[in-house]
Amino acid sequence: MARRRSTVRIGVTGLGEREELVPGVFINNHYRGCTPGFIHTEEGIVLVDTPLIPKQALDWREQIEDEYPGEPFLYLINTDHHRGHALGNQYMLPVTVIAHERAHKEMSGYTDNFKERVRNSFKREPEIQAQLNNIEIIPPHVTFTSRAKLLFGTREIELIFVGGHTPATSIVWLPSEKVCFVGDILWVDQHPYMAQGNTLEWLNALELIRQLGAEYLVPGHGPVCGPDATYRVGEYIEFMRRRVRDYYMEGKNKNETKSGLVGEMLEWFPVPPERKAKIESQIKSGLNRVFREIQREEEQQEGDFEDEEDDDAG
């Protein structure tokens, strides 16, 4: 079916218009929560992530159907289980949701208490809060462990587990089109959210992304960019690891480390004044995570050293 070109509707919806990166591959980076995308194949549509706010999720569905009227939704890939990527799943049904197996475990555990926390996070925006009265969690119907591949006509879509940001974080790679949806592994000019992070996995994921040969990277947040954009967030993570280790080796505890380093980390990326308190809290949660990592690494190294001493004594 020939697709129908639509006119720009920004002034009508206030929600931003889709952008075609390469033929048949679209994104919208105007929504809150994440940058969703979709891929047109000869058999139907494959979606990548979904907007958190219902009005935006419904607008996104409308934009997809406007571009390809009557085409079925085949798969919806969640790059991780966080609300900003997966709570809009309910507005894309019927569709088969696919994600890493850990995403299924996490989303299956989302309770009424979780839904209430989501609603409460918008208490200063009652118009949005009112939209979130009927949250329905749609966990993945299909899961994968390391890699998976979707083949529809000439489209090849690779799902690659990378971890790092969360234990479920995956990227979506289109090798022929050289487009990679990298989810929250990449943050452009923003402080990354690290509360569930594994920094060594994260650094490895950034290196893997650089080696793909992508021309377009679609971050979970921020503008489309090229592989060079991965270096800054990698430097941020390496700096945090180095400074946390310095504090740990000086005998500082976790709270002293967080208090001492939050100011240094704030300087790395722009901080809008109205979001400073939230970003400081976010940085502290990352420092908390990294402190535990460094503590484990140092204890492991110490244990290995003691084992070597025992071997020498034997």
Describe the structure.
The chain has helices at residues 10-13, 54-67, 83-86, 101-108, 112-120, 126-131, 199-211, 230-249, 254-266, 276-313, and strands at residues 19-22, 25-27, 37-41, 44-48, 73-77, 96-100, 142-144, 147-152, 155-161, 170-174, 179-187, 216-221. It is an alpha/beta fold and 314 residues long. The strands form 2 sheets. It has a 7-stranded mixed beta sheet. Helix 7 runs antiparallel to helix 8 (230-249), helix 8 packs antiparallel against helix 9 and helix 8 packs across helix 10 (276-313). The protein is globular. Mean pLDDT is 92; it is low at 1-14.
Low-confidence stretches: 1-14
Strand order of the largest sheet: 1-2-3-4-5-6-7
Q: Return the structural class.
A: alpha/beta
**CATH structural fold name of the largest domain:** Metallo-beta-lactamase, Chain A
The radius of gyration is 21 Å
The topology string of helices and strands comes to HEEEEHEHEHHHEEEEEHEHHH
Which range best describes the helical content: under 10%, 10-25%, 25-40%, 40-55%, 55-70% or over 70%? 40-55%
Q: Care to give the gist of this entry?
A:
This protein is an alpha/beta fold.
What are the SSEs and their pairings?
Blueprint: H1 10-13, E1 19-22, E2 25-27, E3 37-41, E4 44-48, H2 54-67, E5 73-77, H3 83-86, E6 96-100, H4 101-108, H5 112-120, H6 126-131, E7 142-144, E8 147-152, E9 155-161, E10 170-174, E11 179-187, H7 199-211, E12 216-221, H8 230-249, H9 254-266, H10 276-313
Parallel strand pairs: 4-5, 5-6, 6-7, 11-12
Antiparallel strand pairs: 1-2, 2-3, 3-4, 8-9, 9-10, 10-11
